[in-house]
Amino acid sequence: MAEDPKFHEESERIHEYREPKVVKESIFTGSKALEKAPKIYGIPTGIEGLDDLFFIVESEDGKIVKKTLGGIPAYSVFNITGVSDTGKSLMVEQFTVEQARKGHKVAFITVESPANFVIASIKLRAAAMGYNFEEFEDNVILIDAASHSTLRENIPDLLATLAYAIKTYHIKFTVIDSVTGLFENKEMLARGVVRRLFNFMKKWYQTALFVSQKRSGHEELTAEAAGGYAVGHIVDGTMVLAKELIDSSFKAKLYRKEVGDIVRLFRIDGCRMSGHDTKTHYLEITDTGLVRILEPIGK
Fold first, then answer.
1. What global pTM score does this model have?
2. Does residue 252 contact residue 223 with C-beta atoms inside 8 Å?
3. Which of 48, 89, 158, 166 has its CA 20 to 30 A from that of 65?
4. pLDDT digits over 159-216, tens only?
5. How large is the greatest C-alpha to C-alpha distance in the chain, in angstroms?
6. Distance CA 135, CA 103 (A)
7. What ranges in the chain are assigned the alpha helix state H?
């Protein structure tokens, strides 16, 4: 009912005639807000070449210096977007393996494939990273929204299930692959769905990665995803993955490839919780199925 546009229109009409109310609980002084602010530190991702692309700025001896975070900012919510076969799912699986290997519990909400297929893929990623998956396999907590339509179609049920898992397993990291599957055939609701997910992650102090699909008509290196720019606007930052066919001598010279090759690209499109590298980098999917972020274009 809450996702019905007519419901929202009716709600807006009700609010239009209601006496405005002061919400005093929403007002904080800077110091009071800081008392509840989490300390920002880097979360190593398990993705070669990515962790050094995030930094903070500090003052040392009167000088402003940049210091690498050594990972994505803790408690951040990132959107990872790109067309198919660019490495999005591989990236979040590597992230999942890295956190689980270190003893952390990770909620992996699978919306596209059943849990048994996803865990088999994560096990392959662990093997490629050189780890014995059996030593930490139960640190991955799968929530199968692909097989349970009530989770895929009803966001309150999904969030209630995730809250239960977080409390039961003391989860600090959440992956959703993909958020696009939560608003298939109703992209006009994408902003509302992503906003609810984002607010939930913040309430529960999760560091989260949302995979979202690009439509074929979208420009390759923009942050636009299914649901429009609003999806990327809501989250803390977006990582854009792209692939391009080398179909001209100009592209061959630019990317130092042969005509007919495929080049994969990566860039960070904004991060409100820390500084970040702004260059477009080459991205590689190795023959063992791992994503690596390489040097910037032109270097």
1. 0.87
2. no
3. 48
4. 999 999 999 999 999 999 999 999 887 877 888 899 999 999 999 999 999 999 866 6
5. 67
6. 10
7. 5-16, 30-35, 88-101, 115-128, 149-153, 155-169, 190-203, 229-234, 249-255
